[in-house]
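We now fix the convention by which a protein and its fold are recorded. The integers have meaning only within a learned vocabulary of local backbone shapes. The record below shows the convention in full.
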Amino acid sequence: MQQTIKVSICVPVYGAEKFIEKCARSLFEQDYPDIEYVFVNDCTPDRSIEMIRQVLADYPQRQASVKIVEHEHNCGLSASRHTGVLHATGDYFIHFDDDDYMEPDAISRYVACAKETEADIVMADYNFVFLDTVVPHYDIVPSDKTDYVKRLLTRRSTIQIWGRLIRRSFVMANNLFAPDGLDLSEDFVLVPVMVYKAAKVAKVDAPLINYVKYNTASGSTVVRRRGLETTVKAMEMLCDFFSSVPDAALYTETLQQAKLHNKVTLYGLAALDDYAYVRPLYPDVSVWHSAIGLKKKLLLVLAGWGFDRLVFLCIHRVIK
């Protein structure tokens, strides 16, 4: 592998005025020299872009490496990430959120792993940052790629696209972008397919990203009906893809389990009024004969019996 690797950090920007200064400083203060910064202004209604420019004035050595790409209208997170990759020129890129921040040596450690392993995708652990505590999260990334795909399909490993160092030529050659029209779960569609197509996936076994969770009430947030529908669509897309690959037989049972894990996720996202939409999904999969955990089995059975308020309470007050 080449000795010098250029990395593009792609950051969609929308409504991040309270967090963007800390985010930007953590990016500009990386100890790795060859970084390109692509900030995508998704028509943010606040001063986020102005604040990026103000922070950048303190880092003259980074100014020539910064791009601010303007959307003509608000396109959403997935489209903004797509824009970032299209404007990136690095050998690798990493998606980063505008309210999070990196450890100072994050990019250096990602690159060192990429050089050592020649992986298309490099993962890392991360920290959940709350107001009064920091909780490290150590993700499980099996060395066997098939096992890793199965963990992603059943949501037992992190499915988010952010925080992964990804070879740009690999993405462009395979057109690995989230499908249009998904308001939610675009990562769930994209990441398992991306990992399946990658020649190699590697991991840095240390938290390099700080994932801000200051709003501790956000875990109880529900989504609109359209978001639920796109999450169902995401599962359909994954079933279509992994049913058509040459080694489809390896994923048949996992896809059945994935439907039930997806159903639990939907109950966690749904308002009480939308439980009636979730309840009849995936009638072809037996809950009791599946390999999902007992806690999730009980939730699905209770929901199937119509104990909506009890299930809602368990998910939002007990589990979360």
